[in-house]
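User: Fold this one for me? It's 4-hydroxy-3-methylbut-2-en-1-yl diphosphate synthase (flavodoxin).
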Amino acid sequence: MTQGPETPSACQPLPVGAQPKRVTRTVDVRWGDHVVKLGGSAPVVVQSMTNTDTVDAIATAIQVKELARAGSELVRITVNTPEAAREVPAIREQLDRMGVNVPLVGDFHYNGHKLLADFPECAQALSKYRINPGNMGGGKRRDDNFAKMIEIACRYDKAVRIGVNWGSLDHELMARMMDENNQRAHPWTAQAVMRDALVFSAISNAQRAEELGLDGKRIVLSCKVSHVQDLITVYQDLSSRCDYALHLGLTEAGMGSKGIVASTAALSVLLQQGIGDTIRISLTPEPGGDRAREVVVAQEILQTMGLRAFTPMVVACPGCGRTSSTVFQELANDIQSYLRDQMPVWKDLYPGVETMNVAVMGCVVNGPGESRHADIGISLPGTGEVPSAPVYVDGERVVTLKGDTIAQEFQTIVQNYVERRYGKTSTV
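Assistant: Here's what I get for 4-hydroxy-3-methylbut-2-en-1-yl diphosphate synthase (flavodoxin).
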């Protein structure tokens, strides 16, 4: 006989939310008095990377400002030539003049040891160095080049991300581990050896950096791959074998919806398990596309998972045969854009506004209910319904809008609500 479900009073509620964040060392990334904390009890940090030519200091500084305004808390720039290294101090100076204190991360490959040594002003202007051990030569030359970069990081008290990438994994290490694998009674697949080599390389290089004098609280690790399941497995392994702060990102994620979906799928699993201290969404922008889109995606991943709040969230129905009008779609898009555009100002004037929920619904089926659940919501009329739009504030119906100015009137109601509820003198 099949036993029926227990009565609700006898059941325990299922836990909701991500697992507690794994315990890691806290890394301070500084510029002046501004400090961004990675790891420890700090929230997951959003970062991004410019795609301008760093030699063009003005264009790079402008894009850094745009990324920072969108919410990027760290911004990485390419430092690949003497000309680029020479311009880094100018970029930093331009940002400081614009009042942009976001820390800059220098992305180094192949010749980073030489650039940092030859351009000490560049080494000082950066707040963090990104080092890829797989792109620093081989044998003793690799060890010497790595040691030079770590020595400079120690000299200027800079944080370092040791970033291993499966597209540039140390060939000597991989060959040695493949040879060792062949001696196993039951050899692993080449893919499994590669994953193990990534983790081993990251941890061993971090330990080497500490031996060279770099404080472990200055080290962030990453192991970048471009396949979702590989990334999840690598970071689960990495997090179980060390307590360094971890940078998450699916490398070469791709364009548009593919890149967004793949990054979200991989990072959400890890973040739910408490793994990850800073994230970057590596989207390939469409021609002429907005580089800040990767910042928005990173924020939305964290906010929809309930890990952080960046901007008021808009709930909107997908539409169906009851909503042949596009009014609710246009209003939802306008309100969402309006809220995000206001945040650079609102975040200082109205603390807590980033947690606000707004509903823009398209018909009577779920519209009134969703609007009541939101802080502020509107239920627009569906096809054949009475042409009126009730507005709900804190669960109560406060007004019904009609006519051609519904969108403008609702936006005014939202603005007034923000001022009343989140203003610094508010007692609500």
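One thing worth pointing out: The chain has two domains: 27-305, 313-422.
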